[in-house]
Amino acid sequence: MPARELNVSFGYQCNTSCCSGLGDTADDNESTERHSMRRSSSFSCLSGAALSANATLANTSICSGIIGEEILPSIDSPKSFKRMSSSPSLSKMDQSGLSTGDGPPLWKCQSAPSGSDSSSFLHAMDVQTAGGAAGEDRVQAVCSEDNEWLFCGVYDGFNGRDAADYLAGTLYERIALSLQNLERRAKELREHFEADADMFSHGVIGCLIDALAQAEYCFLRMVREEMEDRPELVSVGSCVLVALLHVSHIYVLNLGDSRAILATEDTVGSGEVRTIQLTEIHTLDNESECKKVVEDHPDDPSAVRNGRVKGKLKVTRAFGVGCLKESEMNDMLMGILRIQNLCSPPYVYSTPFSMSHRMSENDRYIVLGSDGLFDFFTNDEAVQLVHGFIQTHPVGDPAKHLVEQLVQRAARTAGFSVEELLSIPAGRRRKYHDDVTVIVIILGSRQQTSTASTAL
Questions:
Q1: Could you give phi then psi for residue 387, rounded to 5 degrees?
Q2: pTM score, two decimals?
Q3: Cross-strand partners of 366
Q4: Which of 242, 333, 349, 437 is the most buried (most CB within 10 A)?
Q5: Which CATH superfamily does the domain covering 3-280+354-443 fall into?
């Protein structure tokens, strides 16, 4: 498979005494020396790769400058991790949430006042970042060496790329600001938090949920402001997958059908791994999700039609897609695009699944993937492919390998050679496979893997 076909391919590697980015930053040597006395990180390396199937439009202006030239190009398909001297969007965002007592939370979506504090829990001076775009998928990874945080986000857009673009440009910063506030509260109650680590863990989960809720609120507000001129925005949405590693914990949040799976050994050193799914699947194929949609709309016999929510969408939870959440937005659609008998919205929910997992020495790696990966591989197959590759190629790129294996399987299924499949233009190729995004995180400090792939 030609390496140039991978739209996103990046890596990040740590050793047993420090973390050092694989980018060509001028201060890499200084960084390595400065952190040489640090303890081992909770992960040894990360690799990411992706492949497009959908044709997409150019970046949009829905975010009125919050997302645009200053943000998205800086995370678009780098060859490796790059040190980020400052966060370009922190100064454009409100620094805190507002509450109205017993009422719903309110969040400012406009630019923050000039001179506001642009630091974050993931301190800008210590952050390195990579990411990119593959069709309507967006992927983002951010590492803070000093704080031992690794953030990974996979945003699988549908009906357009605006929602995924918005998440890629703002969600990390929102989470970072929430974590900054949590850190401040933790310092004020240090003795209490040290005595009850579970409370801090619950606090981190709360930060993820709150940041996503803020993003949804502000995104839909922007859609309302733009929908008269661009009514198609009311149909745009995205699945969301966030994984956050901090020292010995993994925190996961998801909406939709992207997955995070953990490979672990029952016996350390056995070489045999089993698979644990860390996320829920929010589609009508999930019996409990389908039951919820039907039971929440007892007076609507078409709540589920032709295996889709209102005959339109297979996922039951997603970011955006306002036409299935608000009648006003649905009314902007014309003709056959309008959803008939939208009598009791919302039909698609915004409540994410979240969980935390305390890592043990048995845990080996995490695979994050958009649903395009799992169209062709079961959880166990994906894990075994990665496991076998790492065993035989300790300096290889497991995420890239998984994407290559998917293309080979997709070509066989379609009756093509790999070359014939990849020669089909994006858009038409969607008939044979979806956009695919994969991140593989190697846990612990004993295992080592590749430098970053430089093929785009």
A1: -60, -45
A2: 0.85
A3: 262, 441
A4: 437
A5: PPM-type phosphatase domain (3.60.40.10)
Residues 6+ apart with CB under 8 A from 329: 223, 224, 227, 234, 322, 323
The separation between CA 323 and the C-alpha centre of its own chain, rounded to angstroms, equals 23
Q: What is the pLDDT of residues 419-453, one digit of tens each?
A: 999 999 989 999 999 999 999 999 975 444 333 33
Q: How many whole angstroms separate alpha carbon 249 and alpha carbon 443? A: 11
pLDDT tens digits along 230-263: 898 999 999 999 999 988 899 999 999 999 999 9
d(CA 397, CA 401): 6
CA atoms within 13 A on the CB side of 378: 6
Residues 52 and 7: beta-carbon distance below 8 Å: yes
Q: How high is the pLDDT of residue 76?
A: 54
- The token pair at 273 is 């791994």
Asked if 156 contacts 437 with a C-beta cutoff of 8 angstroms, the reply is yes
Please state the domain extents for the chain: 3-280+354-443, 283-316+318-351
Dihedral over Cα of 361, 208, 168, 231: its sign = positive
HSE-CB of 55 using CA atoms within 13 angstroms: 7
Residue 244 parent element (H or E): strand 237-246
The kind and range of the H/E element at 303 are none
Give 17's DSSP letter: S
Question: Tens digits of per-residue pLDDT, 153-167?
Answer: 999 999 988 899 899
Q: Which residue has the tokens 């995004």?
A: 437
Reduce the DSSP state of residue 18 to 3 states and report it: coil
